[in-house]
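Sanity check

After download, print the first record. It should look like this:
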Amino acid sequence: MTLDAFNQTSTDPTLTRRAAMGTLGALGLGAVASAAGQPADRPGTGSRRGQRPVPALLTHEELGFDPETGRYALPKLPYSYDALEPSIDAQTMEIHHSKHHQGYVNGLNRALDKLADIRSGTGDAGLIKHWSRELSFHGSGHVNHAIFWQTMAPAGKGGGGEPGGPIARMINRDFGGFDGFKTHFGAASKAVEASGWGWLVYEPTGGRLLVIQGEKQQNLMMTGVVPLLGIDVWEHAYYLKYQNRRAEYVDAFFNIVNWGKVNELLQRAMA
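Expected structure tokens:
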């Protein structure tokens, strides 16, 4: 869902800025259209003339979104920094969350402020391309990481093993079984050029699962898909423990995937 399409559903002009930020995920993943988690009965997210409401993929708390100020904050992790060891070490988790993710949040809020200045006439409209790119990069980085933290859990305590429920049935149908999915997802994630992500996504038109790659935060992403499970393969996500051994990091990631949360996101996407 694009920003224009979203704004066409809004009947309250006072929600324009919040509505735009609520669609932030569409800039990077083309699917977290109301990533700010606005309830379906609020203006800007509800149905109009029979349109189906866009499901909120993440809650306000999970995304660190304040609907009153329209600003984002670094969301808290659902576990401690050392909870994912040995798959991901505590030092990496702390730096990744408190430094890298915080940087994306800061960049996102700054881009939103600069674009607001341009709209009001106090900013330099000649920089619209720059700040639009900043919004796409930092906004996507924020949404990507918010999903990343939520779809991991300590091994044996919600993390690891094989999925069950709807996600398992769709994996079996679309990838020929869990082993086929692991092979596909793992190979795609290991082969991302330079920095980026590997993603399991739901494609709503075909009602199927796909594995795609993403460079940086948002390049190569497929418009319209809903992200369900992503692995960050930027070096900052694994280098302290694995150095240049990205493949080992990707293999270890399967030990901490929170399939219960992935199922939850799938159900929201299909609602």
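If your output differs, re-run the checksum step. Summary of this record's structure: DSSP finds eleven helices and five strands in the chain.
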